[in-house]
């Protein structure tokens, strides 16, 4: 099954799903997420790829899916009592009521606190281009679809620029 088919079903039935693509560093989590986003865009779904909370759009009702890249690093379970984590859990719950689908990446679902974990189904990479959800549903992801490499490079460049900017700001704040 293709992820865009699942999304179409969710839209038609007014359903919602939240997925965490999990795996070790370098296992292809972000690549698979980007390929899913590209597939959805190619099928005329409106998506947003977010690298930080500030990237989450205000006009969520205009989107079919948002992708949250590596959000477990921003909302770690050991900080579950922090105001930031509580607010993020509340935000995710509200987003779930508006969007047909949310997909995030994380080295492990266990890195999120239990409230956030309970909202997501784990999506594991079995092999390049093949993911499986808890319960045995398989998703095929075309990592070689036409135009995807250019899209992927542009997204990675955007992410790198953001990380460099955050690092610079952090260094300045330490002085």
TrEMBL record:
Novel STAND NTPase domain boundaries:
15-106
Q: Which InterPro entries match?
A: nSTAND3, P-loop_NTPase
Q: Which residues cross the membrane?
A: none
* Record's protein name: Novel STAND NTPase 3 domain-containing protein
């Amino acid at each position: 099954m293709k992820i865009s088919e699942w999304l179409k079903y969710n839209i038609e039935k007014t359903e919602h799903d939240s997925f965490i693509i999990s795996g070790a560093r370098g296992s292809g989590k972000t690549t698979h997420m980007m390929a899913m986003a590209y597939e959805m865009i190619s099928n005329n779904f409106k998506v947003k790829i977010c690298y930080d909370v500030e990237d989450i759009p205000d006009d969520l009702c205009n989107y079919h899916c948002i992708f949250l890249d590596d959000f477990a690093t921003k909302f770690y379970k050991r900080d579950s009592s922090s105001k930031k984590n509580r607010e993020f859990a509340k935000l995710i719950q509200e987003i779930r009521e508006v969007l047909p689908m949310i997909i995030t990446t994380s080295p492990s679902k266990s890195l999120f606190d239990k409230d956030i974990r309970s909202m997501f189904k784990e999506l594991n990479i079995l092999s390049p281009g093949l993911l499986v959800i808890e319960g045995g549903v398989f998703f095929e992801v075309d990592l070689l679809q036409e135009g995807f490499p250019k899209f992927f490079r542009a997204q990675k460049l955007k992410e790198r620029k953001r990380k460099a900017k955050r690092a610079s700001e952090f260094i300045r704040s330490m002085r």
